[in-house]
Design a protein that fits this description.
With about 375 residues, the protein is of the alpha/beta class. Helices cover about 40% and strands about 20% of the residues. The model has no long low-confidence stretch (mean pLDDT about 95). Bound molecules: magnesium ion (MG).
Length: about 375
């Protein structure tokens, strides 16, 4: 089997609640997503998606993804999509870095592998653990009361886990945000996600103020070293996210006991092949996992659920529902959340079939 065509499509997915805001005054009103289609010589088609959270969150942006895929695609025509390790070596040789560009291609080839094997991707990634698992809601940064109001509204859907978007610019307001949420719903899972936004002095102040609360602290500062300092002074369970973008930084963080939980964003680390490697390392090292992406729509959601469902439930800490923030669905078989819980699709591959009318004309198609 050979790859004989790679196509890319762009789609705008408006957010249902209007604006999604996080640390540093950043916000977006829609997901600017890129969908990749990989066609093969045997007629099997695979799909993947990459969707940076605007151009100012991670070193990734939508136009960069599209330019990178166009750059990379000619090197992959004729490659075997079933040989995922070889495919990733070929991508890394052809384009240094830019892991997020490679992610939708890698994911599309996992989709092809599943379809050829007649198995859902989660079963190839390690097996399906349990029947389903809870998902969390990211609570857009707002006043403390408005954030609790959001939790109250979303709780009607059955969700009981939350990622509060804190991280400044005013850390005193952040302390109120976290306290109000923990007072309102002390039995829920509450993760205070700084998203790199605090300076060390601000993060120390927050960590001291919330040390007795039933909450989890995530990525308070930008650098790994500053996060490690906060981790060492805080008794709270501690998540690293943005500063762990590859296997090397993960090995260092594990060896220095700098985290309890790793937040894996599939696109940030380069796709399912590398995300699985990091996931498996964490499981072996006793580190729990939050499974996310950067975020995205139906294909991204399905990919997240396959990785999550193939993670031992003992180690699965939380799973995002960011794909629910838009009502614009472009595919059949996208993620379904019922009473706050989700499961990976049971069809072969990712189990997601995009509506070609919604995708429209491709931005480009690369063939032999
Ligand atoms: Mg995070």
């Amino acid at each position: 089997m050979k790859i004989d065509r790679i196509s890319a499509y762009a789609l705008d997915l408006p957010l249902t609640d209007g604006v999604y805001a996080w640390s540093g005054g950043h916000s977006i009103a829609s997901y600017d997503t890129t969908i990749v289609r990989v066609d093969t010589s045997e007629g099997t088609t695979g799909w993947g998606e990459v969707c940076p959270l605007g151009p100012f969150y991670l070193p990734a942006y939508a136009a960069g993804a599209r330019a990178g895929i166009r750059e990379l695609a000619p090197h992959l025509i004729g490659a075997n999509p079933l040989e995922l390790a070889r495919l990733n070596v070929t991508m890394d040789r052809a384009l240094k870095g830019h892991l997020y560009v490679k992610s939708p291609i890698d994911i599309a080839c996992w989709d092809i592998l599943g379809k050829v094997a007649g198995l859902p991707v989660c079963e190839i990634l390690g097996g399906r653990f349990g029947t389903d698992f809870p998902v969390y809601w990211s609570v857009s940064q707002d006043t403390p009361n408005a954030m609790v109001d959001t939790m109250t509204r979303i709780r009607e859907s059955g969700i009981r886990a939350w990622q509060l978007k804190v991280g400044g610019p005013d850390e005193t307001t952040d302390i109120f945000r976290i306290r109000r949420a923990a007072e309102a719903y002390p039995d829920d899972l509450i993760i205070a996600d700084g998203n790199t936004g605090w300076l060390p002095r601000q993060a120390r102040k927050v960590a001291k103020a919330i040390k007795g609360l039933p909450v989890v602290l995530e990525q308070p500062c930008a650098s790994y070293e500053n996060c490690r300092e906060i981790r060492r002074m805080s008794p709270l369970p501690f998540v690293l996210d943005e500063c762990i973008d590859d296997i090397g930084p993960l090995i260092r963080a594990v060896s220095e006991s700098a985290l309890d939980i790793l937040n894996i964003k599939i696109g940030k680390v380069g796709g399912l092949t590398k995300a699985r490697q990091m996931r498996d390392l964490c499981v072996s090292a006793g580190i729990s996992l939050t499974i996310e992406d950067m975020p995205g729509g139906d294909l991204t959601g399905a990919t997240i659920l396959h990785l999550a469902h193939s993670t031992p439930q003992t180690h699965l800490f939380s799973v995002t529902s960011s794909y629910l923030k838009t009502n614009r669905h472009f595919a059949e078989g996208g993620p379904q959340v019922t009473d706050g819980r989700a499961a990976a699709n049971t069809a072969a591959g990712l189990g997601v079939t995009p509506d070609m009318k919604m995708l429209g004309l491709p931005l480009f198609e690369i063939t032999a």
